[in-house]
């Protein structure tokens, strides 16, 4: 089963399989399947053509994949252009939602900055 050029895994339950689409998580997948009238535990290989089309119609009603990524990128660009605090944090690749940065934020900053310990070499300790 393909939706917007992305293949939904055949062996996974639809509730989980739909989450491969950017912008669809577990709760939205359940909502889509509920509106389409398809069982959560059904697998894509077991669906009829009508059920596939119903799911496809419900998914296309939401903003997902490229459109969503473009919107997120334009929102971040707008924040940078108006020189807001959040925009400057995005530009510097630092956390933009108030987290501390002295000890954490490795995921945002990368694993580049390592702590040094005492700064003394092994030869100096003797």
Structural class: mainly alpha
- Model regions low in confidence, pLDDT < 50 over at least 5 residues: none
Biggest sheet descriptor: 2 strands, antiparallel
The CATH architecture of the largest domain is Orthogonal Bundle
Q: What name does CATH use for the topology of the largest domain?
A: Helicase, Ruva Protein, domain 3
The number of distinct β-strands equals 2
Report the oligomer.
Answer: single chain
Order of helices and strands: EEHHHHHH
What is the helix fraction of residues, given as a range? 40-55%
Mean pLDDT over the full residue set: 87
Biggest sheet, spatial arrangement of strands: 1-2
For the record, the count of structural domains works out to 2
| Overall body shape | elongated
Question: What is the overall number of helices?
Answer: 6
Radius of gyration: 23 Å
CATH class of the largest domain: Mainly Alpha
Strand content: under 5%
Distance between the termini: 68 Å
Salient structural properties:
Helicase, Ruva Protein, domain 3, two-stranded antiparallel sheet, 126 residues, 30s ribosomal protein s13, domain 2, single chain, 2 domains, mainly alpha
């Amino acid at each position: 089963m393909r939706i917007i050029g992305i293949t939904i895994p055949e062996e996974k339950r639809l509730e989980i399989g739909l989450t491969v689409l950017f912008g669809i998580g577990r709760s939205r997948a359940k909502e889509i399947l509920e509106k389409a009238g398809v069982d959560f535990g059904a697998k894509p290989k077991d669906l009829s053509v009508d059920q596939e089309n119903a799911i496809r119609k419900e998914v296309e009603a939401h903003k997902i994949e490229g459109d969503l990524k473009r919107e997120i990128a334009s929102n971040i660009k707008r924040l940078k252009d108006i020189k807001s605090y959040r925009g400057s944090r995005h530009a510097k690749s630092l956390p933009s939602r108030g987290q501390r940065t002295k000890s954490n934020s490795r995921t945002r900053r990368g694993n580049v900055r390592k702590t040094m310990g005492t700064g003394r070499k092994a030869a100096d300790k003797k």
